[in-house]
Design goal:
31% helix, 172 residues, alpha+beta, 60s Ribosomal Protein L30, Chain: A
């Protein structure tokens, strides 16, 4: 059997090999793609969407978190319960709920507070920093990840605090 162009003329041997390699690579990518349930391919990298019912559902066009290259990137968590109700109370009550949510999405990702490498804390009022920090220290007593904390004008649902994390995913 001789490989040919659409018009029937034989292809040069090197071109046949090159086209075969391209087709083979395409088929292998299709097979890998079909095997990546809940994964998407972006720039040759597999990304896994993380979802749990133990934390509030995304209230917009985003996911609770994404895993890529054994790193978990969470969306910011505010003081919503898994049922979508806002926790009423001061900064400390809201911070505790935020950590419950973070622990749930971290667990769903195969990570934990002990594998967090970076947090970003968004505060409605920087005067709440000391009270937030007291609660934060209860969750990061021994392990102390890198952290940024900033005051912003307003948070979704008028929350007092939002925290996002980056964590290593435990190898299985």
């Amino acid at each position: 059997m001789v490989a040919t162009h659409g018009g029937g003329a034989p292809l040069p041997r090197g071109q046949v090999t090159q086209e075969y390699a391209i087709v083979k690579e395409h088929i292998e990518l299709e097979i890998r793609f079909k095997n990546l349930s809940k994964h998407t391919i972006r720039g040759g990298r597999a990304m896994k969407v993380v979802h749990t019912n133990e934390a509030p559902q995304a209230i917009g066009p985003y996911s609770q978190g994404i895993i890529v290259n054994n790193m978990f990137y969470s969306s910011g968590q505010i003081a919503l319960t898994p049922e979508g109700e806002m926790v009423q109370g001061d900064i400390q009550a809201q911070t505790h709920q935020v950590f419950k949510n973070l622990k749930a999405v971290l667990e769903a990702a195969g990570a934990s507070l002990e594998t967090v490498v970076k947090t970003t804390v968004f505060l409605k009022d920087m005067n709440d920093f000391a009270a937030m920090n007291e609660v934060y220290g209860q969750y990061f007593a021994d392990h102390k990840p890198a952290r940024s904390a900033v005051e912003i004008a307003r948070l979704p649902k008028d929350a007092l605090i939002e925290i996002e994390v980056v964590a290593l995913v435990k190898q299985s």
